[in-house]
Design goal:
Length: 351
Amino acid sequence: MTTWSPGMSDEEAAKERAEADDEYNFDGTVQLKNPHIELMDQDILYHLALGSGSHDLQEMFGEIKFVCLGGTPNRMKEFAYYIMDEIGYKLPAGTQLQDISAFSYRYSMYKVGPVLSISHGMGISSIGILLHEVIKLMYHAKCKDPIFIRIGTCGGIGIEGGTVVVTNESVDGQLRSSYEMTVLGKTIYRPAKLDQKLVREFLALADPAQDPYETVTGKTMCTYDFYEGQGRLDGAFCDYTEADKMEYLQRCKDFGVINIEMESIVFSALTHHAGIKAAVVCVALLNRLNGDQVMAPKEVMNEWQKRPQILVSRFIRRQLAKIGRLNKVHGGSIKSPRRFKLVQQESEAHE
Ligand SMILES: O=P(O)(O)O[C@H]1O[C@H](CO)[C@@H](O)[C@H]1O
Ligand SMILES: O=c1cc[nH]c(=O)[nH]1
């Protein structure tokens, strides 16, 4: 847990935060870098329709290891049923998955054993609010080493529709790799860092023999808008020419950007700030160098949207298998691969 306190100087606090970055607490629980929360009688997670006073969050969510987020309620409900099959999770007879956040009328949330599947809506503000509450949920529930994964769609730059992209770095519309926000009237920047080991793990799970599509990695540009923000010519307004658009997209491509979407910068910045490992896996719906309109038929797009889910499922199954193997060795006492790694490192040091 961070030792930041209201009396600390800015310099001390920055040092404290830098040291605490990218780390879970030693027991794997999530650090909360907000000293005010502990002082509150209860914490109402308003947009999730949950609260630390009204719900036993540890009982309900303590076992969560994977938090999967995607734009639409429908995709995340489908993913919940898909991952249920994939990990062999059985619902009690005669029951079905419930949308835990249904009464927020904002986001949908499904829990399948150690997996949470949550819709985040469109854009930085929507996922940003959700992330505050989900990170606090992880903290209240004392979840150990949770990994956050965004399962999305995007526009490709120089890649064809149906290609799966694992983001290695998120940049904004000005190609800056930090998330800019205004706090108390001041502009602050949070580094938008993603876990590079996770990137490699996801790429290694792509299987050219089995997958009739490419899985690639590169920079993802995250914008505040779908139309002008992404240099489209087909919005309600457009004050630039096609040549201007192509020059911008080419500049992005030359910088290493291979896709564009609308959440990855705040997703990577806030998870990094919370010390939570995170990954972004999206499918391209079109190649923006060829046009702006999303024209693939519905059935084709539905099949494409399954592709990141397949990769994420392989990852989750592999992680769960690791945890299962470790627990066999350690009598069920180790609940996450990371804890296992620490135990492994410690025992190696003593050899
Ligand atoms: O498919 P999702 O997850 O919604 O993501 C992409 O699609 C939306 C735009 O159509 C944006 O939210 C963008 O990031
Ligand atoms: O072009 C696209 C397609 C999906 N999502 C985006 O943000 N942009």
